[in-house]
Design a protein that fits this description.
This protein is of the alpha+beta class. It has helices at residues 3-23, 34-59, 65-83, 87-113, 126-134, 447-451, and strands at residues 137-158, 161-184, 188-199, 202-214, 220-232, 240-254, 257-270, 280-293, 297-309, 318-332, 335-348, 361-373, 378-391, 400-415, 418-432, 457-470, 474-486, 504-516, 521-534, 542-554. It has a 20-stranded antiparallel β-barrel. The relative contact order is 0.11.
Amino acid sequence: MSRGWEKIRVLLLSAVLAGSLAGQLGAQQPLPDSSVQIVDDEAYYQISKTRMIRWLRAHQDSSQTELFRQVFELVREAREFAGSGDFTTALLLLDTASSIVQNNVGETQDKAAGEETTPPEHSGISQPAAQDENAGWTFEPQFITGIDLWQQRFELAYATDNNVYFESSDNPFAGARLRARRTSPVSGDFDFYAQWKDSRDYNSAEFELRHNKGRSTGNYWLFENRFENTRYKNSFNLRYRENMTTVQARFAPAPGFQIRFDDYFQLRNYGQETALYPNFWNNQAAAGFEFTSGLATRLTARYAFVTRKHQRYAENDYNAHRIEASIYQLTGRNSSIYLENIWRRRNYAIGSSDSSYQNSFQEEYLRGDFRFGLTSRLSLDTQAELTIRQHDRPNVITPDFVHIATNPRFLITVYDDWQIGLGYLFVWRVFKKDLVQTSLSTTAQTTDDVYLGYEDYFSHGISVSLELFRLGAFMLNLTDNYQVRTYPNSNADAFAGQLFNTNRRINSIMLLFSWQITSKLEFNVLANHDNEISIDVANGDSRNSLFSMDLGYTF
């Protein structure tokens, strides 16, 4: 799956969320910002996975069958953890696969040179220098074309008025991509990526340069810079330029132990700055450590300090503290335990307000992933998370809340490259104006709480998934989540026929598909359909659909 497609997928998912909010006013809730880190980890995972899959495709006919088998198994394991949302473990497995490949390359070069042909005083100097001089760039130009289809329909019922809103759009596009790579045992790896895309609604250009050196499990450093310029043709306000820079340094004072430092800087400017689209810069500086014992054990701890500033809209300025800790333990074949704890504290520069969203808060986030291998082809995977957010001045706009979600499921490997998942979904969320001084027992809420769309609820449902990973052919991920959401304290009777906070049935289907038709032709599809049917009122349904097709030809 191409790096550009992953970027398109992230942008389209953002569009799905934005469209969903427009059609689900009654379900508006303050979401935990812990998802930001997950998105970053997912992006790095997709990049690393793409590189390893390319290596596998290039070496599937290699005589080094044992090396190929090891790398293939690590990529498969990483895909399974990523499918459960554990991108940290997935990245560790891909880093291990990359290290195995790098070690093998080094050993091959040593054997080719011969132990007696290089004098000891020249080891690591003369010979690598010659290798560095001979290292060259590889280029992969690609032409892309496709179409984005979007459709939304929702019904708004209030009092005696029933209104149906319908929107749809199709946006054909075409463009070009260029990937370039240079690998050297001395100067490290250089990756360059560029994309230009033109469509009916917008055009965009993005450039990315990445340089890393060292082994991911040892001393290692990385520099990455990405620039994007997007111009919407019918909305000057949405035009923006953005630059993001990442610097990482890792030091390994002992085997299996790493000290890590990283900094991330983001700068975004809009064509026409407004309160809704303000210019800003954001910086996150972090330090931490990681201890690993093969693939069986991993311990991590990290502290990050975040600063966000706006030139004109100072009420949005804030700084934040973030402390993370996690443990991963491989307990047996196809069995593992992963626990994560994130504590965050966000402070707004102008202080908290009881009439705005700029309200300082602290949040506790706990997550656990438990996988138990019942047989070689059957495992029980349970994911659970808990979020507790408390504001300095809780109010009806930013209330305190507790959020609990769990998804136990069976994972069945039908064939070597087919996997089916079947599980149970449960979600529980409680809002309180002051979580510290009020109990979590079911209590009636005020009219303001209902009007603003914050209402206690719980959901029961099922999850079904189908995954296919066939090397050199295609990859498929299909998920269907169905749940029944209940608002036990809803005052819907007080507002006959209103849309907000009515009991509803929710079905969400997501399809990701990538097909390498030939060595030069690649076909990708993203499809998403959300359907919400109100149980209590006749006119409270909403539907939105998104379909994107991407066809790329490599010269």
